[in-house]
Each structure stands twice: as C-alpha cells, then as structure tokens.
Design goal:
Oligomer: heterodimer
Distance between the termini of chain A: 56 Å
Largest interface: A-B, 27 and 22 residues
Shape of chain B: elongated
Largest sheet of chain B: 2 strands, antiparallel
Distance between the termini of chain B: 50 Å
Strand order of the largest sheet of chain B: 1-2
Number of helices of chain A: 8
Radius of gyration of chain A: 19 Å
CATH topology of chain A: Rossmann fold
CATH class of chain A: Alpha Beta
Number of strands of chain B: 2
Structural class of chain B: mainly alpha
Number of domains of chain A: 1
Number of helices of chain B: 13
Helix content of chain A: 40-55%
Chain lengths: 226, 475
C-alpha cells in the first residue's frame, strides 16, 4: 500500500514536471519617437487592458522604443506577478500607476529623434527567452517606421522563436495612403524579419480585435493579417 | 474451367466436358471433403460452445453467490431491525411497565376506598321507635266528651308527631351522608378509569411493537428457509435503494461542486494561483482534497455514531475508544468547516479586490472601494462554507446504501451480461456447426448429377445395398 502511494506520488511529480512551463509573458513596446509620441496614451490603454487579463504568475514588461532601444534603461516595468492573487493585484496597481506616470511624462515630451524598432525587438526577444512561459507575446505599439541613427547596425536575426508579435495601431504615412503598395511592402518586410527570427507576425488593424487575437493568435496568423 | 476460343466465344461442348469432369472430380473427393468440412466446423464451433458453457456456469455460480450475499445482507438487515424493535420494547417496558406495581397498588387502594364508601352508603337509617306503632290505635280513637281524655290524646298526637319529625330528620341526615360518600367516591372512579385507560394505551403500544416483531420474525424465518419470494423481495428492495441512493448522491455531488467553487479561488491565495500538478491547477486540487477530507471525516463521524457500518474496525471499537474517535472526527470536521468559512470570507475579499482593480484599470483611476462593505453576501458565503461540510457528512448514509445495493445490482447486471454473452456464443457455435452441414448439402447440390447416377445404380434391380445384404444374411 505504501509502495503504491509512493508510485502515485512519483507519477504525479513526473507529470507535473513533464507539463512544462505555463502562463504568459508579454512585452509591450511603446514607440516614443517624435512621429508617434502622441499615441502613447493609446498604448497605456492597451497595457491597462493586459493587466486586467494577466493571471498570477504571468510576466509583463513595458519598454520604450527610442533612438537606440537595445538597452534595459528604456524598460519601464518588468514584473513576474506573484502567485498569490491579492499580491498580484497590488503589483498590477503599481504597474498601472507607473504607466500612468510615464504617459504624463510623455505628454510634455517631443519624443526621440530616431526610432530603433529592431533594437527594441532584440531586447524584448532576449527578455522573453529568459522567462519560462507557455505563451510569449510582444505587443508593439508603433508606426513601424524604423529610423536609425548614424552608425547603428541592426542587420541581425531577431531572437523571437515561439513569440507572437502583435503590431498595433500602425499609422500610415502621408505617402502610403497615396500608394498603399509602399505600406504593404513595409509590413511584409517586418513580417519576414519576425518570421526569420522564429516568431509569428500578426498585424492588428482594429484595436478592438486585440483581445480576441491575444487569446487565439493561431487564427490570426493563419489569415496573415487581422 | 471455362474454355475460350480465339475469337472470345466459349465452346459449349468443351464447357460441358469441363463441367462433367469437374463434377466427377468433386464426386470422387466428396467423402474426404465432407469429413473435412464437418471436422473443421466442429473444431471452430467447439471453442464457442466451451466458452458458452463456461460463462453459463460462471453465471450460475455468480447468481448463487449473489443469492448468498443478498440473503446474508437481508438477514443482517432483519437482525438489526429485530434488535432495534427489542430495544424499543425494552424502552416501552422500562418506561411504562416498571411502575406497574405502584400502579396496581394505587388501583387496589382506590378500589378499596370505593368499596368502603359503597358499603357505608348502603347502611339503612334507624326505623321509627316501636312505641309509635303501639300507640297509633289510640290516636285513631275519636275524642269523647271527656276533656281529660281529649287532652291526653292531643298530648299523645303531639308527641307522636314530634317523634316522626325526629325520625324523618334522622333519615334525611342519613341520606345526606350517603350522598356525600357517593360523591366522594366519584373522583376515585374517575381516577380508576383514567389509570385503566393509561394502562390500555401502554399495552396497545406494546402490542404494536409485538406485531412488528412478528412481521420481522416471519421474514427472518423465510430468510432462513431461503425462499424465492424473499429473494425477489430483497432484490427489488436493493434496486429501489440503488436508485434512491444514486439520486441522493447526485444531489450531494451538486453540493460538492458548489463547495468546490466556493473555496477554489481562495485556495489560490494559499497554494499559489499559477502552479500546476500535471494538467490541473494546484489550487483546484487542494480545494478538492479539502472537500474529500471533509467527506471522509463525515464518514468517520457517521461510523462513530453507528449510523453507518462501512468500517468494521470502527464498529468493533470499545465504547470509550469509539467516543474518543467520535470526538476526534467531529473536531476535525468542525475545524474544516471553520477553515471553509474563513476561505469563503477570503473569496469575497479577493473577488472585491479583483473588481476594484478592474474598475481602476478601466477608469484609469485609483483603486475604487465600490460597495465592498456589503456584509450580506459575505455572511451568506461564510455560512454556506460552514454548513456544507456538515451537510456533506450525511452523504455517508446514502453512500452506504449505494455500496450495498450496488453489490446486488452490479452482481445481477453481471449475471445478465454473462448469460447474454453465453447465449451469443452458443448461437454462434451452433451457426458454425450448422453452417458446416449446410456446406456439405451445397456440395451435394453441386455434384447432384453423379449422386443421381449413383442412386440409380445402387437401386437398380439385382443389386442390393451392402448394408441391406448384410442384414439379410444375418436375418
């Protein structure tokens, strides 16, 4: 009888170990370049929505896209929520407060001169690779127009294996509404870049669709663009 | 067999020749082929028949075993009922009849008092004095002219009247005394009447118990005789018990689900919300374990109270140990109920906190207090958390009924399954066997021409069948 109980415990432990990582890890990138800084409040709304959906034990990080984004200095928040629901709620409140302060600070800011999206994605990919989670997402709130400062080298494969990259609120420039092919070509280049790094590119046209897409990214990916 | 010419058409002569040759070959091979078919089908059908017999025997054995178990359960049940009835009779005798001598003494005293009063009420009052009768002729005399005689007679009349008045007064006093005695006896009569009615009622209760005991003893005798009727009755009772207990268990399962949802969320506060055991959240598993432990404690509690009899070891405990065990089970149950009440309180707090967070995130404001101070849902959930473990403890009773009834119902179902399978196997074996016979007949149909010729040759004049010839020689 005791041996049988030990076997049962062993099986439980093994199945527990074999289950692999669980939970979610989300990295939100907010473009603070001069051409996009006015959209930061919208990014804050997305972050607040995410905070409402995250479960105890999930991870959330918020980073800025600046002139040179491959740095931890531009990371506003990086928190793995406590497994206790009440503590996790307190941490969510703290993150919401920090994001609110960030939005307030950006209100008076003119934004950065350049836009280093690749560096930000590299930083997000490296961060997510270090987190054991079943679902890893990068939500990038940007116009996806990269403008690197002189000397910056960003020709590398992005470490985004197993990561879903959601591009949200991508604003078209003046020339692109005249010639949509330019916009489509730009999006295709980013898709290829993300796919080359092992990730999945999901372009979210409608912000309202984001909750559904976050829960069923495969559906959006199979259709290419949501 | 078909012979085809070069242009694709079959030559009928060659075909006929082929058919004749084929028939000849089949005729020559008839005996070994028939034997082969019959042996093969016999071999194939035999395992089915053996399996069918085996299952039939197993079903019979199982049925006999079920019958034994059913009767044993019935004996135990009736035994318990008889024991219980005897206990009730004992209680009735102790409660009602232990004061019977005092009651009898009281009755005798009252009857003696009534008899005394009655005797006294029968005493005749004293008769008028004899001299009144002696002087009554004198009083009837007519007074003469003599005034002296007239005066004497008047005086005599007055004296007689006075004596009569005194006698009448005495008689009335005696009557009054008798009436007093009789009216004094009335409460005694009533008391005797009430006492006798009380005795009658108590004896009627005893008679009722005796009637129930007679019924049980009759059933017990039938059980000892192992009649089919009592087996049928017990089986029907088991079926009813099975479905009733199953229904109650389903209801209890609903209560368990409610209980689970009541404590699953707060358990995440204790064991962590993001940890898993296999595919299941640790908090859910912990909540389920708590509920199962509560159910187990409830089971032990009922066992200790001797309401259920699932664990013989608990039933065989000494009285002192049983009481200790009872207190331990109740204590643990109480502790678990208190923990559940606390978890229910925690659940309300967590839910309120989550709601406040959601509102603050949507409204982009600081934490909102909402109406978190509403104590009604909190008290309700706490009460539910405290009561449900005790309610679940009573599940032990239908569980016991279900377990015992399931033994009978399951056994009967298994017997039915075995018999059905045996029947299917038997029919399959028979089909294979008769299929072989059918094949030989089909074979004979194919070679009907040689067989007709054979029959004609055998029955030709001057040729006797070997068997008949032999029998004729023997005759």
């Amino acid at each position: 009888m005791r041996a049988r109980a030990l076997w049962l415990l062993a099986v439980l432990a093994l199945t527990g170990c074999a289950a692999g990582p669980r939970g979610r890890a989300v990295y939100v990138l907010v473009d603070t370049s001069g051409s996009y800084v006015q959209a930061v409040p919208r990014a804050a709304r997305i972050i607040r929505y995410l905070l409402g959906t995250l479960q105890p034990g999930d991870t959330i990080a918020v980073g800025r896209i600046t002139s040179l984004s491959f740095t931890t200095k531009d990371r506003l928040v990086a928190v793995t929520l406590s497994r206790q629901p009440t503590r996790a709620d307190a941490e969510k409140r703290m993150i919401a407060a920090r994001v609110a302060a960030f939005v307030k600070a950006m209100h008076a800011s003119r934004g950065t001169r350049y836009t280093d999206i690749s560096g930000a994605l590299l930083e997000a990919g490296r961060f997510l690779a270090s987190i054991p989670a079943a679902h890893k997402d990068v939500i990038i709130v940007s116009d996806m127009r990269q403008d690197l400062p002189p000397g910056a080298v960003r020709r590398f494969a992005l470490p985004l294996k197993g990561v879903d990259v959601f591009a949200v609120n991508v604003i078209k420039s003046h020339g692109e509404d005249v010639n949509p092919l330019r916009y489509l070509a730009r999006m295709k280049r980013w898709q290829a870049r993300v796919a080359g790094g092992g990730g999945r590119w999901i372009l979210v046209h409608e912000l309202g669709r984001l909750p559904a897409l976050l829960h069923h990214p495969s559906e959006a990916h199979s259709r290419g663009i949501a | 067999m078909s012979v085809v010419l070069q242009d694709g058409a079959a030559d009928p002569w060659l075909m006929a020749l082929g058919v004749v040759v084929g028939m000849g070959v089949l005729y020559l091979a008839r005996s070994p082929v028939r034997s082969a078919i019959l042996i093969l089908t016999g071999l194939l059908s035999r395992p089915f028949r053996i399996a069918s017999h085996f299952l039939q025997k197993s079903a019979s054995d199982l049925r006999a075993r079920n019958r034994t178990v059913l009767l044993a359960q019935g004996q135990e049940d009736i035994g318990q009922r008889v024991e219980r009835e005897f206990e009730r009779v004992d209680v009735v005798v102790r409660r009602d009849l232990q004061g019977f001598p005092a009651l009898q003494r009281k009755l005798l005293d009252e009857i003696t008092a009534i008899e005394e009063d009655y005797r006294k009420s029968q005493e005749v009052p004293p008769a008028p004095p004899e001299w009144i009768r002696a002087v009554s002729p004198l009083l009837k005399m007519k007074p003469g002219p003599d005034r002296i005689v007239e005066g004497v007679l008047e005086s005599l009349k007055r004296t007689v009247a006075k004596g009569q008045d005194m006698a009448l007064g005495e008689y009335r006093r005696a009557c009054q005394e008798r009436h007093k005695r009789l009216s004094r006896a009335l409460p005694f009569w009533r008391s005797v009447d009430a006492t006798l009615k009380n005795v009658d009622k108590r004896l009627a209760g005893l008679n009722e118990r005796a009637g129930a005991l007679d019924t049980y003893m009759e059933r017990y005798e039938q059980l000892i005789k192992k009649t089919d009727a009592i087996e049928h009755t017990l089986a029907s009772s088991a079926f009813v018990q099975f479905f009733v207990a199953a229904f109650v268990l389903i209801v209890a399962l609903g209560g368990t689900v409610i209980n689970f949802h009541l404590i699953a969320l707060p358990m995440s506060e204790m064991v962590g919300g993001g940890s898993y055991i296999g595919r299941f959240r640790t908090a859910d598993v912990a909540a389920l374990v708590i509920i199962l432990v509560e159910a187990t404690m409830g089971l032990f509690f009922m066992e200790s109270l001797r309401i259920t009899h699932l664990f013989p070891r608990i039933a065989h405990m000494t009285e002192r140990m049983r009481k200790r065990f009872l207190m331990a089970a109740f204590g643990l149950l109480l502790a678990m109920a208190s923990i559940e009440a606390a978890l229910a309180f925690l659940r309300v707090q967590i839910a309120a906190d989550n709601q406040a967070l959601a509102v603050s995130l949507v409204a982009h404001k600081g934490p909102s207090l909402l109406s978190l101070n509403s104590w009604i849902p909190t008290a309700g959930q706490m009460a539910l958390g405290f009561i449900l473990p005790f309610a679940l403890a009573f599940v032990a009773i239908p569980l016991e009924s279900f377990v015992y009834a399931a033994r009978t119902v399951g056994g009967m179902a298994l017997v039915g399954l075995l018999r059905t399978t045996a029947l299917v196997l038997h029919v399959t074996g028979r089909l294979i066997r008769y299929g072989g016979t059918m094949l030989t007949l089909v074979y004979d149909i194919v070679i009907f021409l040689p067989l007709v010729i054979e029959r004609a040759v055998v029955s030709a004049p001057g040729r006797a069948r070997p068997g008949l010839a032999r029998s004729g020689r023997q005759g």
